[in-house]
Specification:
single chain; 559 residues; mainly alpha; 3 domains; three-stranded mixed β-sheet; two-stranded antiparallel ribbon; 21 helices
Amino acid sequence: MLVTLLSWFYITLFTTLIGVLVLSRIKNTKFTLIHYIIAGFIVITVYVEFFSIFSKIGAIAHIVLLLTAIFTGYFKRSQLLLLWRKYSKIIFSWEGFFYLGFIIIIAFFTSRGEFHTDTNIYHAAAIRLYEEYGLIKGVGNLQLHYAYNSSYLAFASFFSLNWLFGRSLHTTTGWLEVIMCLYAFHGLKDFRRHSCHITDMMKVGILFYTLVNLIRSMSPATDYATMYFVFFIITAWCENYEWKRNDITIYSLLSVTAVFVATLKFSAGFMALIAIYPAFYLIKNRKWKEIVTYIACGCVILIPFFIRNFFISGWLLYPFGSIDIFNVEWKIPKEHLLLDAAQIKVWGRCLYDVSKESLPFSKWLPVWWEHQERYEQMFLMAVVLGMILQLVILTVRVINGRKIRMALAVIFLAIWGNLAVWFLMAPFIRYGLTFLFAVIMIAVGDYLSDFGRMNGGFYGIVKGSLVFCIVVSVSPYWDRYITDAGIFIKHNIMEPYYIVQKDYESGNMESYEINGNKVYFSAEGEVNSYYTYPSTLYKGMLDDAALIGECIEDGFKAK
């Protein structure tokens, strides 16, 4: 726990300094600490992606950016002093005492616990590849999962600090939980004074989402980072609408952040639809300089992501086979890509058989529904009720002649668009959990915003009944995870991880020689070891792969 806490302090300071460096160039907009931290997160991640194209992520990569952060601290010391004066009042108060207690609780879960299944399959191994090579050409031929190329693993590798400690820290997910939850708590303290509550309920959603992932807080899972960033974008967007007087700069920067989300998990790329709103305003007012700046920011974010995709898999977007523009030696064969894409789809639909990929909606939906746990079915019913509540509220607004809230309409469009993609492609609940939560929270928040004003008569009874049913339907969901957290604490409180964090699990690995180079594979189970590199979970893929040259750095190709 102690090392985890120190790591969080370091990450917070680092991201804040880099964020201040970037956002200080934008005038006439007031930023808060969360804005600086998110900006720093994005810049550090993009930097690591660029650096990894040329070299490994070790001491040099870290020190170069660390010196930049230190110089920022010196030259921006007056701005940082103002930040300290603002937030030190919170730190040294009862509110700060509450936050400290919460941080210690999350540190407990981040120092021990369970690893996400995919962390054992490829997250940890992919982080090690960043640390030892930066990237390996055609490494997707060694294991297809490496070709997913989530940029979150770049950020995690930067703060793993293996080069310094001789072991990898994996504290970034817990840190992200803390940052997002403190953001939520700080906003919710003024709940009673707020006239609008969509933002408040989205912040409640952040807390619920953290509860769901609590016992896996130490896992650098790409799903968690993606969902937290989506939560932040939706919440900050609603916050800007309800409390910050529609600052178009904030909307524009959140649109850039939505582009970044696509590099965390490309299936969440529909969040970029929110750019419609600031783009319309900027074009209407002929803000050409701002338009070029934001487009350039989006390109800077996407370019290293696409370059890495190209080198790792030979595809621009893996596993999307419709964009087939490269013909390079290390390209993952299209039949492998299509099989992988099919497996993702049928696993998401709980069919577990690629021959059933083309099964019609009416056939796979009942199978998918039956595979959900009871508390998950109740939660999904709450989402449907939330959709109905949103439609009822919209109907009432139209009947009463109230204006359509375009800023909120755009964010709703992005949420529903992502839900449609999620449901039709791979409806694992964890893949779309933020969007599912958002439907519920926005509907209830909208209801609370009009409470006592627009909730009388027939429509008032309908809306109140829907809210009651939503609360009842969601209750088993959070009850399940509260119970899980309590059991976890009982079973793990005596574990010896109060100083140093629990390390990655080690798979039973065996080695295989290719041109005199050792490559490792898992001998049993689905645990790919962080400690041996390069490695693959599947011996069959290793049998089908060959080195392009004489050494690992030359890359892999399919035989």
